[in-house]
Amino acid sequence: MPDISLQRRDALRAAAAAMVTLTGSSWAQSPGWPTKPVNMVVPFPAGGGTDAFARPLAAQFSKSTGRALVIDNRGGAGGTLGASFAAKAPADGYNYFMGGTHHVIAPSVYARLDYDLERDFVALALLASVPQVVVVNPRTVSARTIQELIADLRRKPGSFNYASAGAGTSHHLAGELFKLQTNTFVTHIPYRGAGPALQDLIGGNVDMMFDGLGSSAAHIKGGRIKALMVSGSKRNPSLPDVPCAAEVGLPDYTVTTWYGLWAPKNTPPEQQNYMIEEVRRLGRTDEIKAIWAQNGAEYGSLSKEQFAAMVTGEVKRWAQVVQASGAKVE
Asked: What does pLDDT average to over the chain?
């Protein structure tokens, strides 16, 4: 007959081993954070490029952690009002800021800012990067190629205008850089975010825009606006028929719109790390991969230290562009 005591002892050992395994797994997945909703300031109105990436990320964060990632849209002043608000939020591990290219430009174009991107925040992760795209309203602009557009701009200087997400944003500086490199003049019309600017472009109230592909992609594919060129030295997979800047004789027109994640200074390091690991994990999900690809974007793969170094380098690079263009916001 089988030894009942031995069987019972083996069963207890197996149960104990299973409990250790489950406890270890649970601890690895649930380090005690988050225990309540997490806030993320998006410094532009809904419907813009930042929003196009923030909201899918928030949905997947909530699905993954069981806690809401609450998007707080605070537009105005080229994204600097939202940044100012986020810099003063409690550094408790439950407040974050999603900014980007606009915020490394701002120190050079705004005479006064009541926050410092590198001093008042901790750079955590690069979330998305997309090329800038030159888009026009096909009903108000007759040009069908970028060469035709440049010829029209030179023939009728000042007769065309371009919308931006606000003075001092990457949209604005991309337009100024384009004007410098093509020897053209286009009137700048600033808005309170890419969403309102795009709506006026679609409605025919402005002629063109230098937009991040993340906010323009759906409108381009829907035929509401027409893409004439993407920045950089290669075509974008989501718009394979649109030429890149290098192809049309503008090899130095390399403007990328990127979006990153920051925490207020003095946020506990362990909670910084929890957030970094969570957004990295979300970047590997099929849902996020599909949305980023649809928007012509790449998910960031930089370490925390590499992203911080990138921010420092971008502040310096855009300062040179601002100096060359003479763009300023009082």
From this structure: 90
Tokens of 129: 């990067």
Residue 25, φ and ψ in degrees, nearest 5: -65, -45
pLDDT tens digit sequence for 272-293: 999 999 999 999 999 999 999 9
- 162 in helix, strand or coil? strand
Q: What percent of the chain has pLDDT over 90?
A: 78
Question: Which residues share a beta bridge with 233?
Answer: none
Q: Which residues pair with 329 in a beta bridge?
A: 110
- Give the burial class of 299: count Cβ atoms within 10 A of its Cβ; 0-12 exposed, 13-18 middle, 19 or more buried: buried
Q: Give me the DSSP letters along 31-94.
A: SS--SS-EEEEESS-TTSHHHHHHHHHHHHHHHHHSS-EEEEE---GGGHHHHHHHHTS--SSS
Interior angle at CA 70, CA 295 and CA 123, nearest 5: 70
Instruction: Identify whether the C-beta of residue 127 lies closer than 8 Å to the C-beta of residue 260.
Output: yes
Where helices occur in the chain by DSSP H, the ranges are 4-29, 49-65, 80-87, 101-109, 146-155, 170-182, 194-203, 213-221, 269-282, 286-294, 304-325
Angle at 60 between CA 58 and CA 62, to 5 degrees: 70
**Confidence check: pLDDT of 328 > 90:** no
Return all residues near 258 (Cβ < 8 A) that are at least 6 apart.
100, 101, 126, 128, 129, 130, 300
CA dist., res. 286 & res. 218, Å (int): 20
Cα dihedral sign, 77-78-82-84: negative
CB 210 within 8 A of CB 164: yes
